[in-house]
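Thought: the user wants the 3D structure for the chain below. I'll pass the sequence to the structure tool as-is, report back what it returns, then summarize two notable features.
Action: structure_tool
Action Input:
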Amino acid sequence: MNLLTRHLTGIADFQGRENRQPFWLWILIVYIVQFVVMAIAMIPLMTSWFDQMMPMMQGDPHRFDNDPQAMIQLMMPMMQNMITMTVVSAVLFFVLTAAAVVRRLHDSDRSGWWSAPYYAMQIVSPIFMASFFPRYFSMMASMSAAKPGSPPDFNNPAFQQAMQSMTLMSLVNILSFAILVMMIVFLVLPGTVGPNRFGDDPLKPPFH
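Observation:
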């Protein structure tokens, strides 16, 4: 059974063990496919955004300097679509890799539930960003519009809320990175030599 067939037919197989080589080859394939699909999907979004922005810039080069809210309104649909694609991509990545990740964790005698925080952050993080990014940019744009060319007013409640939003986003990113590092460490560790509680050693199957 080849690599693609094994993982596509075992997409819901959370039993048994999997050694490192077929696991990382499958992850590489999924990442490449995910990157290509996201890049293709991004092209029409970026093209549409430039098509709308360029005539406005040509008509008034300082339009967005004088009216930051116009830039935010122009960017908002594209940002929302990008975040939606990111969530869909994260769900697809989960579907294609969850069983393989669980089997790889089993190989080092770890429960598959160790992967739960990683996948939760993969899906929650873009949703969190979708909530805070528009609010952050909208607040900053409204401040710029109120006092064009002036430095930020650190006592302005809008500025404080924007900074709080940015701090929360940074904390989410740091937590996501820490969980990712933990998962990579678990997934690159060698498997248990011989049988463990999840099954036989895939590198040394038992003799019959």
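Final Answer: Structure generated. The longest helix spans residues 20-59. The helical segments are 3-9, 20-59, 63-66, 68-107, 116-146, 157-188.
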